[in-house]
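Why do we care about 3D structure at all? Because function follows from shape, and shape follows, mostly, from sequence. That is the central idea of this module. The next example makes it concrete: a single protein chain, its amino acid sequence, and then its structure expressed as tokens.
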Amino acid sequence: MILFWTMAGVPFSYAHAILYIANHEPSQYQWPWWFIIALLIPYLGVYYVWDTCNSQKNQFRQEERGVVDERTTFPYFKKGKIQNPRTIETSYGKQLLCDGWCKKLSASEIYLPLC
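And the structure:
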């Protein structure tokens, strides 16, 4: 799904914005400063959740392989690693992360009550 969105959704959404800007006067699409801030605040919150969720997942997989390379790039959020995460073992012997953001944001109602 990520590949599909990257190949289809991203160019599609960029094209709409560019076509709108190219075909309208700047006075028609200029927003007030308070509206831009109202959009920016939830955007930064969602970015924080997205970034720390991916960091938790990546740290979990690295610990599983035994090679831990802690990410310290900008922006660096401290909640990117879970100490002693709760997991579920699959029938194939793999571990599923069911702690941190994965626990809070997962749409699956099947395995989370087991944690």
